[in-house]
Structures are given as structure tokens and as C-alpha cells.
Amino acid sequence: MYCTNCGRQIDPNAVICVHCGVRCGQVNTYCKNCGGTTIPNATICVRCGAPIQLYRKSRLTAGLLGFFLGCFGVHNFYLGYNGKAIAQLLITLLSFGLFSGISTVWGFVEGVLILTNPNATDAKGVPLTD
Ligand SMILES: [Zn+2]
Ligand SMILES: [Zn+2]
What we know:
Layout: H1 59-69, H2 74-79, H3 82-94, H4 100-116
Helix pairs in contact: 1-4, 3-4
């Protein structure tokens, strides 16, 4: 088996890659079966035809993070929207909480959208799981 993050050979039973420390199945840069690079969001490897399991993030987790920690942009960090996440974090921190209402409402609205939009995806365009 190959690490899906760094493409190096790892033990078939490994849970975390010994080379890069990334949890197996969390990224899909390399094919687990042949070690070749994969096309983003492809469901089978173009080199060996092995099915690629996309690591899908949880809609519920993202939504709840938006509700409770939205003012810190945690839900956007979770989904990989780092630009938006940093903006929300900075609004809260740089205003010493003065404008945290803005990022709280922003995060809350995004949490609702994530939970209600069946086509919600993460930053890589991978659909969320229910
Ligand atoms: Zn690795
Ligand atoms: Zn392959």
C-alpha cells in the first residue's frame, strides 16, 4: 500500500503514514494501490483502475462548528476555506471581540447553509457526508 499523501510505500495495516504522519485516507494525492498521482476528485485511479475513496468531511460537524465556533472561522478551517476562516478569525481577534458579532452571525449563517445545502462541498469540491 502507498501513502495517499506522500506516495511512499507503507505497511498495509498502517493507520498513520510513518513518512509524513498523515492519517491514511485523509487526502487523495496518490493512489493507495499503485502510488501514482491521482486526478483531484477522481473516483478511480487512471493508472491501475483501483477505486479511490474520497475522504469526505462531515456536514454535521462543519455546521455545528459554524454555530458554536463560527466567530473564529473554525468551520472554514475544517472545510479548507482558509482565506475565509482567517478573515473571520481576524475580525474577532483584531477588534478584541468588538466586532465578533459580525463573524458570529457570518459563521452561523454559513453553518445553516452547510446543513441545508445538499450540494455543499469542502474547499476541494468534495461533497460532504450526511
Ligand atoms: Zn505519507
Ligand atoms: Zn493506482
